[in-house]
Amino acid sequence: MSEAGVPSFAVIPGTQVAGALRGRERRIVDLVEETYRSHDAGGTVNPPSYFLRFPDRPSARIIALPAALGGPAAVDGLKWISSFPDNVAAGIPRASAVLILNDPETGYPFACMESSIISATRTAASAALAADRLTRTRARPTAIGFCGTGLIARYVHRYLTATGWSFDEVGIQDVSAEHAEGFRSYLARSGAPGKVTVHASAAELIRACDLIVFATVAAVPHITDPGWFEHNPVVLHLSLRDLSPEIILDAVNVVDDVEHCLKADTSPHLAEQVSGGRDFVLGTLPGVLAGRVAPPAGRPLVFSPFGLGVLDLAVGRFVYDEVSRDGQLGVVDGFFHELRRYG
């Protein structure tokens, strides 16, 4: 604590974030599960995200995700994450982000950290958790396909393999041959088993795999034929806008949070508009964890997570505590200046 009980303010760069998370995949998946359970039990505050859009840059957006997490590691905060798809053509990542952590007692922010790594981490941990829980009533997938091969795809593969998954076949499909080759090279370096195939089309990839990860930058549905899913795969629909309403309505659907997911023209939101209701949503992943929701076999199963800010807070708080424990916090002295009410 600094003067007058105000917390010190620290800046945590991406190098420290990555270091704090390295090798902790199983712990982070457990943390994400704990946070989902807390959210399900009412132990969080997770209001709607706010989208900042630009008339002169229609493909770009910046999203604010405010949230509060209770419990022993209580923290409030905000993730501020941009998505500029044109960055990819320039050779830099689409997304960039910062996470602000606020002290629940005083409201003062006590940390600002690089958060594209945190965002990718919580997304990948959520995907690994969903893959485990949603396949328990089915044959365990042996062929995984990645449609979209950027940072999120890499993190999802890392979290799956770190939590005990292995695959006989790994499929890749991307609109960019260069990006597909880059991901194939990553897979080779990872040492993970499985024959790697670069597919010429999404249809070919989908039909060849029983676990499919969508991690694209698609703004509107581009996968439109329910027949491609007639082998009943499990689909981790992380990019949210790949699947047509017809595919969503033909599948068993699980989301992370119904109110969050069915908005902003996500595929489930479009399906709601087409069908006039939400009956196509079986339930939530927290509901699955609590045993209230049991996805049936025999139909395609789609998990569409909008992404909850409380997950970012949980992972961010974990990073802060690890860096602090190591004595490596980069405290900004004097960040809060006017701390005396009358000077």
From TrEMBL:
Residues passing through the membrane, by range: none
SUPFAM superfamilies for this protein: NAD(P)-binding Rossmann-fold domains
Protein name: 2,3-diaminopropionate biosynthesis protein SbnB
